[in-house]
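Write out the 3D structure for:
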Amino acid sequence: MAAGYVVAVVGATGAAGSTTLKILAERKFPVRELRCYASERSAGKTVSFMGDELRVEKVGPEAFKGVEIAFFSAGSAQSKEYAPLAVRAGGVVVDKSSAFRMDPTVPLVVPEINPHAAEGHSGIVASPNCTTVVTVMPLKPLHDAARLRRVIATSYQAVSGAGVKGVEELRRQALAWARGEALKVEYFPHQIAFNLIPHIDRFADNGYTEEELKLIHEIRKILELPDLKISPTTVRVPVFTAHSIAVNVETDEPLTPARARDLFADFPGLRVWDDPGQNRYPMPVGVEGQDDCFVGRIRADLSLANGLNFWVVGDQLRKGAATNAVQIAELLIREGGVPNG
């Protein structure tokens, strides 16, 4: 029998799914057989993997026979319906939707931060929201060094975080503007080209959006800090790829900006771009296509003791979604958490 695993990607034609295929190839993931699934609307399309064109099949109850690792890159409804079927068929699911993230029986994992959480999984391991991943990466080394007391996070989120329709809407509106035509609003609640929309996902009764509440609950679960004070605001911006987050933290112990730079630089998956004199700081155009998250604008909070401000940018399709999910699968393989054969 050839070495490797039988792998399924559900949602293979979407932005996160197509990036998952790219990451699997780039990281030389041990794939013996790859099956690509999507909704009925996308069935019959083809996707590229390692030089081959693979037909996309409609996902269904019988899709997971023999599958050992299944990456779910579709919505939470499909994950809730089909992920348990993949587990019952003997596979392990890495789910990138919100379906299982806050289930106390399902690990929510960022491999650089809490790999131990994946131990003893029951067949499903969740990957966090893309904004959560980018935000929590620099929080972990700060907490280990000085204990987090409070976090304020304001995100500036690219349209590809909303999928291919979000990308198409920004491109379409930008081209219409260049031609002097009216800008049609079809997907986002307002014009996105040359605009900012402080509204991502549905509003809850308390005035926060579900995207903001995800940021609170998921960071707490990943860091195992159920009482951490977190105040989020999430904003959609006219950028194609890479989320940016302005973060303010308060810690129990004092941290100088120089010490924070060292902590970030030593943490796997983080890179420091922080030279104000040379206008060097992370921006989406420089971070797109990278797996690391980039930190800059590191400075003391002048308004309170033990406060620190910084700016972090990450490609939300890669580390925020596909790369993190593939890293989870690699972790499970190393730890013997995936049946093979």
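The chain has eight helices and 13 strands.
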